[in-house]
């Protein structure tokens, strides 16, 4: 395949020279990229989310069932491989002016750079909000969308402030991810931790280990921690996998006996939005609205 790709690249016409470039911040540091690229491929759902919010049209996306709110951005757009395995030959034929990679496609950045200018826009770690803002600013610089970006940032800041006010004084929370019958817990230094740090929402169990896939826990653990709020992410639902739903997994006396269970304070998030497109501007707005609505109906302690 490597030799076939090399031969294919040699047959392609040279790219038109354009001296206009901009310098932006990426996950790998500063990078110089073409300004206002015409043919753009995005291989990361958080990137697709934010680019869509900015009104950037894409020439290629990965083959995946996207979160429902991103379905219009995928409809009619050619697919170029998967999140983990981009189709290098298809991309070479497409000859994009810019490829936006990151997250699950991060490992393929070097190979993608053999085809076209490629930026790693991975969002990961405990400062998801800060990275989301930085990626939005970078995309706005690339595509000359600063005014729209300013509007989106203002909306995000307003949503964060309103959600902080909604959760204030209403107790602690435990974030869990279900995967069929398995459960993992996530703390404030995890990829979901911004729900604690950005909102001032106390952790029900601050000693949760910082692990990529969370700390494996049991129903007995949840009962012992006894969170005021249980924030639930259903991985199987997020990736369209059949299996026991989170609601069924948590339907047992141990969970029902917690403060969260007794008071109807179990919040099921839009799992695809947070698990697949975490850090996208639209994703964050959806999640903030869900949390705000859930907490707003309950009185402070």
From TrEMBL:
Residues 1-19 form the signal peptide. Coiled coil: none annotated. GO terms for cellular component: outer membrane-bounded periplasmic space. Pfam families: Peripla_BP_2. InterPro entries: ABC_transptr_periplasmic_BD, Bact_iron-sidero_bind, FatB. Residues 39-299 form the Fe/B12 periplasmic-binding domain. It comes from the Bacteria. CDD domains: FatB. It is found in: Cell envelope. GO terms for biological process: iron coordination entity transport. Keywords: Ion transport, Iron, Iron transport, Signal, Transport. Belongs to the bacterial solute-binding protein 8 family. This is Iron complex transport system substrate-binding protein. It comes from Meinhardsimonia xiamenensis. The lineage of its organism: Bacteria, Pseudomonadati, Pseudomonadota, Alphaproteobacteria, Rhodobacterales.
